[in-house]
Amino acid sequence: MTKNPDFSPGVLSMLPLFYVGWSDSVLSPSEIKLIHKKLSAFDFLTDADKDYLIQYTDPKNPPSKETFKSWVTTLKENANRLNNVEKKSLADIGLEIAKSSTSYKNNELFNLPRTKDALYEIESALGVNGNGSLNLLLGKLDNKQSDLESFSFDPKSLQNTLDGDQAEVINRVRKLIRDPFFKFEHIADKEQYRQTTLAQLKELAKQGFGAYAFPSEFGGLDKIRESISVFETLAYNDNSLTIKYGVQFGLFGGAVYGLGTKRHHELYIDPLTKGELLGCFAMTETGHGSNVKGLQSTAHYNHENKTITINTPTHEDGKEYIGNALHSQMAAVFAQLIVNGENHGVHCILVPIRDKDNNLLEGVKAEDNGYKMGLNGVDNGRLWFDNVEVPLKNLLNKYGDISDDGEYMSPIENPNKRFFTMLGALVAGRVSVGLAGVSCSKTALAIAIKYGLKRKQFNGNSKEEEVTIMDYPSHQHRLIPLLSKTYAYHFALRALADRYAQADEKDMRKIETDAAGLKAMATWHNTRTIQECREACGGKGYLAENRFTNLKSDSDIFTTFEGDNTVLMQLVAKGVLTEFKQSFHNEGAMAILRFLGDKMSNTIAEFNPVTTRNTSFDHLTDRAFHREAFRYRYRKLLLTLSGRMNDYLKKRITPFDAFLKCQMHMLELAKAYTDRYVLYEFRQAIEKCNDEKNSKILNKICDLYCLTVINENKAWFLENDYMEGSKTKAIRRVISKLCQELRVDVLGLVEAWGIPNEVIAAPIALDD
Amino acid sequence: MTKNPDFSPGVLSMLPLFYVGWSDSVLSPSEIKLIHKKLSAFDFLTDADKDYLIQYTDPKNPPSKETFKSWVTTLKENANRLNNVEKKSLADIGLEIAKSSTSYKNNELFNLPRTKDALYEIESALGVNGNGSLNLLLGKLDNKQSDLESFSFDPKSLQNTLDGDQAEVINRVRKLIRDPFFKFEHIADKEQYRQTTLAQLKELAKQGFGAYAFPSEFGGLDKIRESISVFETLAYNDNSLTIKYGVQFGLFGGAVYGLGTKRHHELYIDPLTKGELLGCFAMTETGHGSNVKGLQSTAHYNHENKTITINTPTHEDGKEYIGNALHSQMAAVFAQLIVNGENHGVHCILVPIRDKDNNLLEGVKAEDNGYKMGLNGVDNGRLWFDNVEVPLKNLLNKYGDISDDGEYMSPIENPNKRFFTMLGALVAGRVSVGLAGVSCSKTALAIAIKYGLKRKQFNGNSKEEEVTIMDYPSHQHRLIPLLSKTYAYHFALRALADRYAQADEKDMRKIETDAAGLKAMATWHNTRTIQECREACGGKGYLAENRFTNLKSDSDIFTTFEGDNTVLMQLVAKGVLTEFKQSFHNEGAMAILRFLGDKMSNTIAEFNPVTTRNTSFDHLTDRAFHREAFRYRYRKLLLTLSGRMNDYLKKRITPFDAFLKCQMHMLELAKAYTDRYVLYEFRQAIEKCNDEKNSKILNKICDLYCLTVINENKAWFLENDYMEGSKTKAIRRVISKLCQELRVDVLGLVEAWGIPNEVIAAPIALDD
Q: B544: which chain A residues are within 8 Å (Cβ-Cβ)?
């Protein structure tokens, strides 16, 4: 009867399962293991059936578009004839299709209970949304949303808004980290933890997750934006894996690709994306965390045999804190390149450090960094090089090379500019770490909020009914403003990642500034959020099983690595000041007049007593008010800082001393700048949102975000007479009101992040 | 020649070493081990010498006052005849004394090099301040302070001020935790960690540290104040041990002593102080962390056989998070006491839970709580009781008993009052945890500040000399205000501990309020301080060897246990409100008038524009200004809260709803109340200080403390028109100035805490 005679009844019986299994483009390791085991034992399958099916259990060999389409066609044609498909299991559908096919021929095996049971077993292991996917295919409605109807919006729909065009890759990773193979577990012993993390990394590579950021000509997927989403989504779960993923594919892979040329790409990209070549990124030295320019390692070029000698001058100059240092076969070593006695600054050279049996090569010394506060699944270590010789071709030579005559040459003449171009790759790291911070905040808030909604608290009068702790204002104040900021940073960092993925060179300076500020603000926010969530869960929050232990200790370093937050905020302030001066320089006096003019006119409007005292709800939740307040704070801090700096310089105070005197002011400016950027991107995201309910709830969260930031800085607004006390007090009341209003939607807002229950994992957050 | 013929030359040769060893009243386990080993091999000692000396190596058998005095006399008489004593080693002095004694008789053994070497070896193991102690005895000056002269005060002298009358016990513990047996180590495996902690606990008991809090008639030392100092000082080091110490001697021992009567004291106090009877404090139940009144466990009295049946009704009602649960032989179980069907509320009953071979007794179930964020050396677990019968005499019957006729009786008629009297013992726990929080803050600051003074940072211009990160304003702002608050909480909690140790019943209510507030504020401060210190040390701070890992994760729970901080702050506010209303009630309308009158007169002075705008340095560092500001904030918050509450109640809003509406206001009031108390005790401590340099530096730290608190609350002062923006900005400048001034003294301020280097332990903080 079926028009597609290519499929045997055996294959047809399994087709719905394989369709659903592949419909989110990923088969997880546990699924594969199970399918392999079961398939071989199924007597209703012919050997040819088994061969056909088994080829589609290799995650590196997904069905081609054509094959998948043929499955879809077959399923549609057959299933549409069946009644009540949405109420049937995938196993039942498979069996019915098989039995109604032309090649069925009354094979009794398909009627045996054990056949049905076997299919049920696979279905239950593949589990869950199977029906949803199939129903979607068949154009039927999935009616499972009824229990979520109590919110003012549909969390699934909000999730689509949040995931945006990254939904596909995010869902792939979501599915993967739900798999038992990636199950969150507190592993105390670092050796055991590292082995687990390494195995998981290799599984990620096997599933093709290492290939996103690289061009297809070298086996990559050409999806740099998606590679950031992989990192972001992994961060919901175990962050040792997240960081190890980042080290291998982002830092090491990024150095090979971004600083190397074709000869390196051809040799190394494919094995490194497959996890066959493990590498590390050997930049930081003990005394030079934030000062890459001052690295002490040397790379001497020897013209006689066209080699480079890598050397660590003293024990203190060893490479420090290098992720993957104990598992790597190769290190991307940053060192001062010296040619003919002349230092051409920091360059990156690929240095083999271990043989195939994982023994260290001669001249290389490695030492375990030992236990850390967290991330103990990552093998951080120190590395020293004792005059290790490598061929010249190991120099990553995109921005600096040595000619056949032994002369140094570079497409970028200015060594300073060359240096910063080479470091450009770090920007992706900063965006990624910022997003990972947001993910950790989300997981922590999801746990704390779900617990707060379950947990009852006595209310002093034992006769009254116990209320949930989420009903307490202090609890709402603790968590809901943090939730609003988490939403805000989500949108800002996602937008920044988009900008980064599309950027050309002239945008990079601005993106670097924004990335520095956002990384710092989002990771500080993350540290604070997890701490607050832990405390909000009391003693239960202290048990490792409830995840805060690892969330907190793993992400604590986010404020430090990929650039210390305080140092990054100084970069932001410098960037802002430079641009400010630049625009004056370019546009002359008119620009200053315009800027001041703007400011003057604001001043008049803003300092109007009617405004400084306006305490109406409408005014306080008016986005125009928020924008003006954010703008005023940023501009005033910029003008006064610029003025102070000029005064000091006129007094012949050295720039460094002037910087020291203005350091606190600079940090404030950087915060104000970044807050404003966050608000801008939050607004853009709301504008793009075309679901009314979603945009309404996002607007409310944005209100809370804005007022929370204003409230945190209210002393500044009061000091500067921008608001009167009556107004800041009213803001506090509006925050309380918004927290109370959001109380009913708070679970939906957490559900919209789409963190799988297997990943939330904390017993206190899950239903019994 | 010597007038003391009792001592043989052999004993005399060892006497300086034994004198110094015992002069701080403690011989540590490693010292004992070493002395035992060496003594037995010394051929210059007779067997009688060895017997005499070995008896004084038992920590439980220190030399009597008479014996010690005879040593002192002998040493003084002999040593004063020697030249240049202060330049000689203890071994040399011992030998010289031995050889000049009447009983010497030219024993050649004393001239052999190996004899000298053997003595040297013991001296070097006993180590350190040996000469200092002996020189002190002999009235010579110790000239070792020269390297500390660069401070504006003498850290040793400031340490004496800080230690006060607790110096002796603090020094005992300091010496003990310097011993390798107590060496800080990151132990990842919880089973191994627990064994280490248990062994250390037993050593503490062996050294007599478990006996402090108990009366001498039961083998105790009658030093309740000192028992808190033991806890406080242990907290510099490993906090699993600190907490296990607190559970065994404070909670379990405290329950037996404080809630039991003579029959319990005679049976249990001695073995428990010796660590022979390990016990736990089984109060908390899942679901009833902060609601002790609502505990579900029951204790049914059976008159027919005069027993009590302890039962856990459902799995959920199990005792949760019980420290020592897996090592204990006995549990002090809190349960609803039911006699003749009538519930008399929560009482405490001693329930044997394990036999001598550590097997659980019938009807008792225990479960490991598993890994926690920290404190993994403490065996926390859950406990369930399935109708376990114990004799009536196991009821801790000080505040509630059952007569021979089977009738319930209590010296306190009001069940509510009875309940709170029974919980009074928790106050000591709160004071202790607060102090432990201060100790952790001190250790963290000591590490971060010492590192900050060593670590150089590039300054943008590579030609300029690198400066230490402690020279950066942002770094000073990060750490020095936290240091000032740590000093403030130190004095406040020490004073509170003094008050507690001397309190009679009528003081307890007030002490409970103060303890609740201080515990909350000091532990929040601690969490924040360690976080800031970790970040200030960058990646190095993330390595476990540098101690923040354990400091942070161990002390994180301080904000939760012994009362959740938010709940405690509500208690403070309630206490303050009650007292406020009480004083009105007692003193009638006059009191209100006086209070308001006070307020009115303040208002006039304070709101004088000259004051609200006064930005002079003298005014801003005037203690009278600080006191007024603290007082105004407290009083205004109290008046407005009281007013709001009254309004709600008049509108017939239920008290619980009124409380919900005022919860945030209550938290603010509790903070203001506690800040004011801290300042009061800081001032008292400075007044008592009779060293001019110490009082000067403490005054400066107090200035910084006050301005830091005002600065943190400046939005409130601005909102309430108590200060103008010009003044709050000026305060920020004064804070910067004070930080800069304190920069030169900052190391001395850390040294004055007297944390031994062996305890600081972090490689980044110690000299290479």
A: 370-373
